Amino acid sequence: MKPLTVALDILQGDCHYGTLLPTLEVLMQKTLAVKDALSRMTAGLPDAIVQAIQTHFAAELDDKDALLAAVSCPTFKLRWLKDAGRRERVKELLRAECRHTTATAAQSPASVPTTSASRSERGFFTFEAESEDTYSAENEIMDYLRSAHDLQILDKFSNIKNIFLKYNTPTPSSAPVERLFSLGGLVLTPRRNRLSDKTFEKLLLMRYNHWFTHPTPLFH
Predict the structure, then answer these.
(1) 94 with 132: CB under 8 angstroms?
(2) 70 neighbors 18 (Cβ within 8 angstroms)
(3) Where do runs of H (alpha helix) occur along the chain?
(4) Global confidence as pTM
(5) Are 140 and 98 in contact, with CB atoms under 8 Å apart?
């Protein structure tokens, strides 16, 4: 079952939390797609795998945080959702979160020079509140969904970037943390047992960054 092994490699690698749901959705689709090519003895295996995924990840498949983490990843956006109704629901979640982010930022506006108005002027000019936050949020989402799929495009969409940072802090698995502890053992050796906490942290960060960019040479 190649789709299963590829999905495990993806989720155990250094990926964002938003990778979880797209990986599970594509895994279920690809697993069911190979069903017809299997023998009679193994034909029921794809259904069993999909059922196990739906049962084990029942809470995550419709979790708001997981959905926002996925849609705020430029790599995925809404492309991994096949059902039109679910696509619209996730889009509405992103729209609502974007409006909330805009409203939160507007609570602390930058101070600008103002001129005092008389009481009569304040009573005379009464207008309805403008819905600029709704307009800007909607347009930002539309422009984001039509943009490229590399992570750097988030710099052009401040609200989407804040959502991405908020919901993609966790990792889908503990594998990256376990690798970090393993690298720590290579840094804090018996001959370097007097390293200060700050020095150890810097050396570990340098070692991890080297492994992340050149994973194979490090362990040769």
Answers:
(1) no
(2) yes
(3) 2-11, 20-33, 45-56, 58-61, 64-71, 84-106, 119-124, 132-145, 158-167, 175-187, 197-213, 215-218
(4) 0.71
(5) yes
Which residues in the chain land under pLDDT 70? Answer: 105-135, 210-220
Confidence at residue 212, expressed as pLDDT on a 0 to 100 scale: 57
Distance of CA 176 to the CA centre of its chain: 16
Q: How far apart are CA 162 and CA 214, in angstroms?
A: 29
What pLDDT is recorded for position 104? 74
CA gap 28, 22 in Å, rounded: 10
**Separation in Å, CA 110 to CA 106, 107, 144:** 9, 10, 26
Q: Which two tokens stand for residue 31?
A: 């697993």
Other CB atoms within 10 Å distance of the CB of residue 154: 19
- Residue 59's pLDDT is what? 92
Residues 183 and 204: beta-carbon distance below 8 Å? yes
